[in-house]
């Protein structure tokens, strides 16, 4: 019987994907690099799948490694739900808030918001789920969560909404892509004719891009490969698999380090990030406090 991978090893693998190298991933999870290398090698042997290609220039995720990273995110999300949920069983005095957030918000904004909420309500319990925008809205409408945070070009139907922040989509490529040498902007016609690495249908990023391209040229983006997370798309871009249009929030670190490069677009791809809920128009309690924090603590 195959051994179960260790949660710490999965967390390390995701950190390697997010931060671009084994050393940076090890620092992110507070692990010594030699221990990190051994942990990854042990997991490769256990799974029977090569996750990294190693060279004198460093280590990169293999195509199989990119897929495993995507699955590992689901496992880590489930593990966090288990830990947070069991903790909430004994921490009810300060109230409980069930929050569902799209990946861009959950990865890059929500942790800071929740840190502030914890200082204001140390006894409160927050149960967090991470989905794409369509799934967040469905969860709010079904009563599966109290408050959602989504991204998209327009307010979803059937829910109350409040704009809490703004973002934009940018076109990014790997350092060796031919577009890094171009001097002109990429227009809608060229973009729609180019196969892109994309998020899955239903994600706010994909919806915003497809809506704009349909408005400009009558067709949505062509998907070279659909991936289930911003990080998976970003790592694939870094590996040279193709160009992608992603949230600036999700590629800020990679742009700063030069792991990916921005190509100017002849398109306006701004968007609003919204809180969504059902019931009375005016929020109260923990939900109201979290929305207020989101509005005042977003860069």
TrEMBL record:
UniProt keyword list: DNA-binding, Transcription, Transcription regulation
Top-rank taxon, per record: Bacteria
Keyword Transcription regulation: yes
Occurrences of domain HTH lysR-type (ranges): 5-62
Alphabetical list of InterPro entries matching this protein: LysR_HTH_N, LysR_subst-bd, WH-like_DNA-bd_sf, WH_DNA-bd_sf
Alphabetical list of Pfam families matching this protein: HTH_1, LysR_substrate
Signal peptide: none
SUPFAM superfamilies cross-referenced by the UniProt entry: Periplasmic binding protein-like II (SSF53850), Winged helix' DNA-binding domain (SSF46785)
Protein name: LysR family transcriptional regulator
Protein source organism: Nocardioides ginsengisoli
